[in-house]
Amino acid sequence: MLKIIEVEARLFVRDRLNSVFAMVFPALLLLGLGAIPALRTPDSNFGGLRFIDSYVSSIIVFTLVFIGLQRLPTVVATYREKGVLRRLSTTPMHPARLLIGQLVVNFGAAILSVLLTIVVAYVVFGVDLPHHPLGLACAVVLGGAGTFALGLVIAALAPTARAAGGWATVVFLLLMFFGGVYLPRFMLPSAILTIGSYSPPGVEALQQAWLGTAPDWRHLAVMGLVSLVAGAVAARTFRWD
Asked: Where are the bilayer-spanning segments (predicted)?
């Protein structure tokens, strides 16, 4: 298992363009939004906060969804398309180990990206650090696990990299919409807000922890349940070719 993680980490680092983009782009997005003066002005729509203060949780959503659904499934599907998985099928390695290796490496990259975003938000724009750090950590871990587990299901089934990209894009767009990345959450109908609260990676739990209260345990429980169910489905339906 450790060897698989080591090899996958090396491959991740060697893919400099995609890996750097995945880890740095969320912070660059925050810098771009923060350069707009109106978004650095307190607004009653955000409870007297600035737009960038309340939008950091949506950027974390983008980070987890992008790496979990755009990178991870494509990498595994590329292995399948190029025959790498077929060769691995002749070894005693269980497919769950390959999926776990991908999960560990990509989730580690997501955590680093989230930390970079927090540092940029605090140093450049004076955004408060998370008021409930433990709650934010739980929300990121459980919400990220649910998101990445969905990516693993796509990775387990997609026959080619193109198919993985197409399937993942549909889920990616839905989770981004429910996560308030495309539109500020105050502009969304209450039904959409509720769905977004229980959809991975759980934007409501992230925002609650960032702004000062413990995340709703029900949101976290749903994220954990999604990760367990989707992870089990991915392991059982995995195809070598």
From this structure: 20-39, 59-79, 99-122, 134-157, 164-183, 220-238
Give the global pTM: 0.87
Residues with Cβ within 8 Å of residue 132, at least 6 apart in sequence: 208, 209, 210, 212, 213, 214, 215
What is the identity of the amino acid at 67?
I
Question: What are the extents of the domains in the chain?
Answer: 2-237
Say if CB 87 and CB 168 are below 8 A apart: no
Locate 112 and state its tokens: 């680093």
* Two tokens, residue 12: 């991740």
CB 162 within 8 A of CB 168: no
Kindly report, residue by residue over 17-44, the tens digit of the pLDDT.
777 788 888 999 899 988 888 888 888 7
- Residue among 149, 171, 160, 158 nearest 224 (CA): 149
Split at pLDDT 50, 70, 90, the class of 114 is: very high
